[in-house]
């Protein structure tokens, strides 16, 4: 899947972006660090999954005994898998975690619990809003990674992981919509506010 | 036809001769400078084998410089400045971390003393170069002895590994220990502090990475900060240490790691106590509700 996409990319997209990174190879000793693109991607993804994990935790704390609990529980389990995967990848690629982690922990929990307090539908609306942004975000990252086909073998693991996680997140989006997310009070306003927050968080986590 | 080829051969010969003359003279000039510098070095400080090493390396580099192929190599700004600063290190015991040491280093590398103008931060650049070189050496050393392999992980504890790494790194500054206070003060200048901070961060990250640290939460930061703090205070202690072979310093380092162990066990105690208090509070609340009869609707 990933390979066929890369071939299409090689044929159609910007040849100029391909070779810039291989010019700067030099024989001198350098500190071995992840390249800036991987650094950015892994840091923000790890932060995002930790945040998502906390959102579901907050929702479960409120809706633990309601009828949508099994659905939320199932999604939460998948998010836990994601966090575990990034916990492995971060030390492997020598990427530092974001410094705002304690803040995401609190913010995620508050968002999850807060939306759940507004009712099950609102909780689902929150899931829809968040997963939509995360899905988009993963897609952007896949595009960035495919932009230099020279390093495809180096990025192969990341491409696989991100593709799989993107599909999982979009599945959560579908689940949310199936469980009447659209009927939540002030659905569109709530969605916009949450998505704005998510985008800010992503922007921050890439930098700090 | 025969005359033509003989003419061509003689022309080629003369060309070769000219080339020999041109490059040979250049080489002689470089060698001359170098010898002058070496004599000066012997006369003044005449110390350690490090200067010998650097002059050996230099022989090779000057040869590269004059040989036909790869004559462009080693001529970009970065590697020139690296060469000058490396050569300048041998003058540090004499002139300290100053512009004068860089001037001498530039001369020994066959450049004009004016090359010192490449380094706007003067001594600061020299110290930073030295620190970065030490960090790279430490990185290589750690990569060779990395704890990431399973069998090594079993034999060496993480604490010992880190302590050993700090010790190795501190030993690298022993040759310059007399002028090291000056270097430390240079690193505290606002213009150098950012880079100095960066290099310390790189060093601590290297050490933790090779000690097989897999934390991905906020402890990633606290671990590196505490290691940097330990390194900093031990460095300060070392500068004032007059004992044989810096024994006091290594004992000081031991005690700092002991402190870390004590604090982490204290932290665990505190966490446990916190949990217990929370449990106690919950059960007290339930008890009060039971006694006052408010718990009826919960049954």
UniProtKB/TrEMBL annotation, chain A:
Key word Protease present: no
Record-listed E.C. numbers: 1.14.99.60
A GO CC annotation given for this chain: extrinsic component of mitochondrial inner membrane
Binding site for Fe cation 1: 49, 79, 82, 169
Catalyzed reactions per annotation: a 5-methoxy-2-methyl-3-(all-trans-polyprenyl)benzene-1,4-diol + AH2 + O2 = a 3-demethylubiquinol + A + H2O
Record-listed Fe cation 2 binding positions: 79, 131, 169, 172
Alphabetized Pfam families for the sequence: COQ7
Location(s) in or outside the cell: Mitochondrion inner membrane
Keywords, in A-Z order: Iron, Membrane, Metal-binding, Mitochondrion, Mitochondrion inner membrane, Monooxygenase, Oxidoreductase, Ubiquinone biosynthesis
Molecular-function GO term, any one: 3-demethoxyubiquinol 3-hydroxylase activity
UniProt cofactor note: Binds 2 iron ions per subunit.
Family, similarity comment: Belongs to the COQ7 family.
Role this protein plays: Catalyzes the hydroxylation of 2-polyprenyl-3-methyl-6-methoxy-1,4-benzoquinol (DMQH2) during ubiquinone biosynthesis. Has also a structural role in the COQ enzyme complex, stabilizing other COQ polypeptides. Involved in lifespan determination in a ubiquinone-independent manner.
Oligomer and partners: Component of a multi-subunit COQ enzyme complex.
Protein name, entry field: 5-demethoxyubiquinone hydroxylase, mitochondrial
Source species: Paramuricea clavata (Red gorgonian)
Automatic annotation (TrEMBL), chain B:
UniProt pathway annotation: Cofactor biosynthesis; ubiquinone biosynthesis
InterPro entries referenced in this protein's UniProt entry, alphabetically: COQ9_C (IPR013718), COQ9_HTH (IPR048674), Ubiq_biosynth_COQ9 (IPR012762)
Annotated localization: Mitochondrion
GO molecular function per UniProt: lipid binding
Function, as annotated: Membrane-associated protein that warps the membrane surface to access and bind aromatic isoprenes with high specificity, including ubiquinone (CoQ) isoprene intermediates and presents them directly to Coq7, therefore facilitating the Coq7-mediated hydroxylase step. Participates in the biosynthesis of coenzyme Q, also named ubiquinone, an essential lipid-soluble electron transporter for aerobic cellular respiration.
Family: Belongs to the COQ9 family.
Protein name: Ubiquinone biosynthesis protein
Organism encoding this protein: Paramuricea clavata (Red gorgonian)
